[in-house]
Amino acid sequence: MGIPDYLATLLKARVSDFIYEVSCKSTYSCMIRDSPQVPWWRDVWCRFIPFSRSALTWRLLLNQLSTEDRLCRAKFHLASRCIVCGVSIESFDHLFIRCLLKAALWEAVFLAFQRRISTDTWSSFFLRSCWFRLAIRSVIWSPPALGWTKVNTNGAALSSPGVGGSGGIFCNCRAFVKGCFVVPLDHVFAFEAELLAASIAINFAWQNGWHRI
């Protein structure tokens, strides 16, 4: 009984004959072939922005962050509660808009800039914001316009959660320091320190009469 030709060919073939050269680029191109291209992708994936920040912003805009409500839908059994207020389920919109702390922060921002934007959903709010493109591109520091004050804030935590701190510095149009603040924090998450720094900066500016920030 003879061996079929196709089987004989397979037996004589080398492993290298079946290896197809696959690269990350070709795999990625195959995956996104039918995906629509959004008009703001160049504002997110910019060489002036660290990759980690671009990746986070990209996932944020596409609603792909691993919030607890999404994990529950993926059959991960969690007792989903917001780590800030401890009342509502941790969803995407609650995490960035509807939580009591976040709502108070946005109210302070709206009051300071005398402008209100619809907060129906986080994605629509973020894309409608007049400062979206400016926030993405403000990577290289420059002094503000005449009569304005620029504030730069930051917050960090040693672990998640852990000991951290918030701080900010105010500069005028000649790049002279007008004021600054530092607040030590105990047992916080990094994003909480960042939000607190922004909130303190707004109150600090208002108390000192710096309404054009």
From TrEMBL:
Q: What is this protein called?
A: Reverse transcriptase zinc-binding domain-containing protein
Lineage: superkingdom = Eukaryota
Q: Name one GO molecular function term.
A: RNA-DNA hybrid ribonuclease activity
Organism (species)? Dipteronia dyeriana
Start and end residues of each Reverse transcriptase zinc-binding domain: 23-106
Query: Can you give the residue ranges of the RNase H type-1 domain?
Result: 152-213
Identify the SUPFAM superfamilies for this entry: Ribonuclease H-like
